[in-house]
Write a structure and sequence with these properties.
Layout lengths: L9 E4 L2 E5 L10 E4 L2 H9 L5 H17 L6 H9 L8 H12 L4 H25 L6 E4 L6 H11 L5 E5 L6 H12 L3 E5 L4 H6 L5 E5 L2 E2 L5 E4 L2 H10 L4 E5 L15 E2 L2 H4 E2 L2 E2 L9 E2 L1 E4 L6 E4 L5
Parallel strand pairs: 4-5, 4-7, 5-6, 7-10, 10-16
Antiparallel strand pairs: 1-2, 2-3, 8-9, 9-15, 11-14, 12-13
Length: 308
């Protein structure tokens, strides 16, 4: 089974965390060295790693603290972690770790066990997604699912299914072009890049058979929060009767998407790109990083199951 570097973008060597810098892809495969929790939390805030990478990083921060002999700092560090990203909430993870510590269980063993379980849960999600696809399907995706799309394609290939992909650019961070298209081509799969506003036109032409996206947050009623632009794709897929599948985490304690806090990123991230000003001076930007897709628009949730 082949894995993209984005499938497991975090490593711990000694007491240093190595974080795959997704903002430098596809030009360079480079890693950031985080020697303490503050540097690691900054990597989360700056979106140097996202989605599954951020979940992994949270757990590696706690492992790093243990390596550094700083177990007494767990609670204080957990508070810092919880403040990094509002929509992808880490509180359930940090509460779980603090609970292990309070009950005086072997903390390092629990952390490593959780990570191992997460790995196999992600593989199972890819397997479940591959079962929903047919030979010669063309799959549209939005943003990036942290290494799962090429894994889905690889599993489907072993089942005798040939797949093609359409990936949206996913503005303004361009995860679709910088990450999804890169990892699919790196794995040898057929991928076509489109801008975010081409989805309706491409579906109208009958080019899309299925949609598979990720989710940063799953509410109890089935609503999801995912990268901004997901909602409009779901509406369009419903109109054209294209199945819309979501690879999502375990549900939170939120009753519906209305209770999920949407992160508003700095408008500079829309107005500039890699130091280049894209908009005229004085123009304002509005960048909600996520939107809510109602459960009624979702054909199937491909849920992650993790034993804690």
């Amino acid at each position: 089974m082949r894995f993209s570097p984005l499938f497991w973008p975090i490593r711990l060597k000694g007491s240093t965390i190595y974080i795959l810098d997704e903002t430098r892809l596809p030009q360079k495969l480079a890693y950031i060295k985080a020697r303490n929790y503050k540097q690691a939390c900054k990597a989360i805030k700056d979106m140097k790693t996202r989605a599954a990478g951020q979940v992994l990083l949270v757990m590696y921060i706690f492992l790093q603290l243990l390596k550094q002999g700083k177990r007494k700092e767990l609670a204080r560090v957990a508070l810092t972690i919880n403040k990094t990203r509002p929509t992808l909430s880490f509180k359930s993870l940090t509460d779980m770790v603090l609970g292990w510590s309070k009950n005086r269980v072997p903390l390092e063993k629990c952390l490593l066990g959780f990570l191992e379980g997460l790995k196999y849960s992600r593989i199972r999600q890819a397997e479940d997604a591959a079962k929903l696809l047919k030979n010669n399907d063309t799959v549209l995706t939005h943003c990036n699912i942290s290494g799962l799309m090429p894994l889905i394609a690889d599993i489907a290939s072993k089942q005798g299914k040939s797949l093609k992909f359409f990936a949206t650019e996913t503005r303004p961070y361009l995860q679709g072009s910088r990450l999804t298209a890169w990892e699919l081509r790196r794995a040898g799969f057929d991928v076509t890049l489109i801008t975010d506003n081409m989805v309706a036109s491409v579906m109208a032409q009958g080019r899309i058979d299925k949609v598979i996206v990720g989710a940063d947050h799953l509410a109890l009623n089935g609503d999801i929060a995912n990268k901004i632009g997901t909602y409009q794709i779901a509406v369009t897929a419903k109109y054209f009767r294209v199945p819309f599948y979501v690879i999502c985490p375990p549900p939170s304690d939120k009753k519906s998407g209305k209770e999920v806090k949407i992160e508003i990123r700095p408008d500079k991230e829309m107005l500039e790109y890699q130091g280049l000003r894209l908009a005229p001076v004085g123009a304002k930007g509005y960048y909600p990083a996520f939107d809510i897709t109602p459960y009624k628009l979702i054909t199937k949730h491909i849920r992650m199951e993790i034993k804690r």
